[in-house]
Amino acid sequence: MLRYGLTKARTMGPIAEAVSGAGGSLTRVFGRAGIPLTLLDTPDRLILLRDQVRLVEAAMREIGDPSLPARLSTGFGIAGLGPIGVQVRTAGTLGEALARVEAVTPILLQTATWTGLRRRGAQAFYGYGIVERIESGRQANEILALGYLLSTVRHFLGSAWRPNYAVVTGATLAGRTDIERLLGVEIALGSEAGLVLSPDRLGAPNPDRHNPSDSDMLETEPIGDDLAACVAHLVELGLDEARPTIDGIACRLGLSRRTLQRRLGDAGTRYADIQQRVMARRAKALLAGKTLPVGRIALELGYADAAHFTRAFLEWTGVTPSQWRRDVHSSRPARAAVSAAGG
What we know:
The protein is 52% helix and 10% strand. The strands form 2 sheets. Strands 3-4-7-5-6 form a 5-stranded mixed β-sheet. The chain has a two-stranded antiparallel sheet with strand order 1-2. It has helices spanning 12-21, 26-33, 49-63, 68-76, 83-89, 94-109, 138-157, 176-183, 227-238, 246-252, 257-266, 271-288, 294-300, 306-317, 321-340, and strands at residues 6-8, 46-48, 113-120, 123-130, 165-169, 187-190, 193-197.
């Protein structure tokens, strides 16, 4: 089955900082990647993996720096991996850490990718690959991943550790000298990306094992990577700019309108149902605040006026937007009073 990769939007921040620091245009970079700038304010939202790949490539082109992925990943290290970094820092040995990363990366951080350990003859291969069919920008994404793979291993073996060599895919590698200097490795070109190291290194103990706190483990919600989940996330992102259409969503996924409708039908849902759920959720979130008038919320959701939005909301919930807002705000004092009384 064709899979659609999703990843956390937190990776947008460092890319934006690098572009701004080099005097580039964020509007131009995000526009080329086809994603809204509002993602910078919502780092925990999900985006398509292919959008992240396009953003890195657009940023490299904007500032003329093919070594940007290497600079990003080495600059943030394990901390940039979020919940995956917690798994690494709490593992007892390097081998245990790599096994944890393989198990939880596609669940918590980035779907439609593989990160894990294989044997290559007498050597161990700690690799990374994109399962989804993405060609443009694949090598840049692999270089970004190499920095994180190196950070994982160097947590156990020291910052001066060097693998036998590293591998990325492709026929050529622009900026090779700078990339090798930043990563501290020799890079070869091959059929899959990763690090080659001696298997006896896998038993290395954790020199600074971390005891996780409850706050470390808060971010454990799995990322759904089924088609319906991808469509819902794309609709959610589309609402930041204008109401998305099924044709626009299909194009983002590399499908025709008819193919998208058929695959959603096979999954037991429809585009209209997904869009309605997302819009109702966004409408309620906006109505829960007291600042935006109903007319402005209607425009935010792509409606021509408040009347059209009111009819739609009434169909979704059985009440008008104004009534829903009144009910929400009138219930808050009651809940607060119960809480203050210890109820």
